[in-house]
Specification:
It is built from 10 helices and no strands. It is mainly alpha-helical and 210 residues long. The protein has one domain. Helix 2 packs across helix 5 and helix 3 runs antiparallel to helix 4.
């Protein structure tokens, strides 16, 4: 089954109506990218990204495990967190577009900066990349991975690697961009297909919801 303009628009509307995190996500999508680039954010902003990653799917992560992972992140020194996020945002900003070798290297650099932090693996780091650059970077988790495998390019992503490596994230992001580009071509740019839009469509059309 393929995604079309109408199914994406429907999924985005479903997301707005039914996902409880939507209002604060929208606000953070609008404010965090600039704040992360400039270093104009506080501890709560950084911790929110980690909490968002684990709490957006009710029951997706058992409470005890979620609390353990969030507590691990909170043991980091704020200056180390700030330096890692600003450095990651700067690496992403240094390239003008995604998909080429330069962009791949920037994403690897950004992920490596973030994953030195306690409690930050590639999936959590991808959440920071998402809120640094929601136009071109996509958060990765099992639900998004499986949805992309269902609706993305013909070459299947395979089973979700738990957790994915940096190389696996790069492959996932290439598939996501190919899907977004295909939708743009199909719809002749009549609808906005940034990664934030694609994320909402994949989340609402994931296989577990079928």
């Amino acid at each position: 089954m393929a995604l079309s303009q109408s199914t994406v628009e429907s999924a985005v509307e479903d997301y707005r109506e039914h996902e409880p995190f939507f209002p604060v996500e929208q606000e953070q999508i609008e404010t965090l990218p600039a704040a992360f680039r400039r270093g104009e954010f506080g501890w709560r902003d950084a911790a929110w990204v980690v909490r968002w990653y684990y709490r957006r799917s009710i029951g997706g992560v058992p409470n005890a495990e979620r609390r353990r992972r969030e507590a691990a992140f909170e043991r980091n020194d704020y200056r180390a967190v700030r330096d890692a996020i600003v450095g990651a945002a700067g690496a992403l900003e240094s390239v003008s577009d995604g998909g080429d070798a330069e962009s791949d290297a920037a994403e690897r650099d950004a992920l490596e900066r973030l994953t030195v932090l306690e409690g930050v693996d590639v999936p959590v780091a991808s959440a920071f990349l998402f809120f640094c650059d929601p136009d071109r970077r996509l958060v990765v988790g099992e639900r998004e991975w499986e949805a992309l495998g269902e609706y993305g390019p013909s070459e299947n992503l395979g089973a979700y690697p738990d957790p994915p490596s940096i190389d696996a994230y790069g492959m996932y992001l290439d598939h996501a961009r190919a899907l977004a580009d295909g939708l743009e071509l199909e719809c002749e740019l009549a609808f906005e297909y940034d990664m934030w839009t694609l994320y909402r469509a994949l989340w609402r059309r994931s296989p577990e919801r079928e």
